[in-house]
Amino acid sequence: MSAIVPGLSWSDVDLDELSAPLPSRVLVTGAGGSIGGDVVGLLHAYGAVVTALSDSWRRPSPAARVITADATDEGEMRNALEGTDAVVHLAAIPGAELAEPYQGYRINTDSTFNVLVAAGELGLRRAVIASSINAFGVPANRHELLPAYFPIDEEIPRELDDWYSLSKASDELSAQMAASHWGMTVVALRFPLTSLPSQIRARTHPLRHRQIREGWSYLDRRDAARAVVHALVAPLTGAHVIGLSAADTFREEPTTDLLDQYAPGVLRRRAFMGREALIDTTRARDLLGFVPRHTCSEPDPELIP
Ligand SMILES: NC(=O)c1ccc[n+]([C@@H]2O[C@H](COP(=O)([O-])OP(=O)(O)OC[C@H]3O[C@@H](n4cnc5c(N)ncnc54)[C@H](O)[C@@H]3O)[C@@H](O)[C@H]2O)c1
Q1: Which uninterrupted H or E stretch holds 87?
Q2: pLDDT tens-digit profile of 146-194?
Q3: Which residue of 28, 121, 193, 294 is most buried, as measured by CB atoms within 10 A?
Q4: Which of 132, 213, 228, 245 is the pocket-test mutation for ligand 1 (most atoms within 8 Å of CB)?
Q5: pTM of the model
Q6: Is 72 in the pocket of ligand 1 (CB under 6 A)?
Q7: From the CB of 23, is ligand 1 less than 6 Å away?
């Protein structure tokens, strides 16, 4: 196990929140990581039987079955998926700076393809995969670019320039292929910066001109896990890319002032009230029934080792 990262306690989980029952047996890949560990905890609190798969672990997992394996391994993946009804695929190298391009791109896209092909062939009906705000390419682009418009939605033009963003864009296409080929429902969630309130508040100055490319967006860890369980039960068919965000930005200034200062020339498709988020979360609300509950102005939640 690498350095321990404390988990959320889920002691006050809202068991009535979901509109439909969860699949009873769920595989979570990347379960040893930050979002994956939280998702396993929440599914466990809901009473789902969870298989947790990861190639490393930062805290003990409450899952019924814990598998240490590489998500790109075909045999391991089939073994892990055997007997499950749905899969949440979060295993990935979560940033361009964390691996060499060929290695990182291969791991991310191979693992997503492997999960979706095995799930399709085994007859699973639902997969939720982690995409990223980076999937449209502008946030990590080396060139001086800004998003084509605000708020950023799932159709915003891509400007891909790094392997990580490309891997998430490729994963979204793999989702489309799997939904078409096997008739399963695949939801690709575009997570923004996902963390605890105190860590989000600590995001300050030096990156400010780049953070505008993500609309200073973020999501509380509790809401990220909630969005995943909503994606597991939402009444959907086909493949869907869905953007996520807290309701506000993590900046203190009003959103309109931020845009006036840092992106005066960028098209605004609507007006923004107060510190309103610059990510369009219409799909999350309408397709998943997901609305974020937490903001970075709150104290951190209770954590367990
Ligand atoms: N946290 C964020 O701010 C954020 C933002 C956007 C997208 N995402 C995406 O969400 C997902 C989860 O991110 P996270 O922040 O929890 O990352 P994390 O690094 O905390 O967790 C990823 C986990 O996946 C495991 N893993 C990596 N490659 C693997 C492989 N080949 N086989 C098995 N396990 C493997 C790692 O050991 C780790 O436990 C990733 O796909 C990431 O790209 C995260």
Answers
A1: strand 86-89
A2: 999 999 999 999 999 999 999 999 999 999 999 999 999 999 999 999 9
A3: 28
A4: 132
A5: 0.97
A6: yes
A7: no
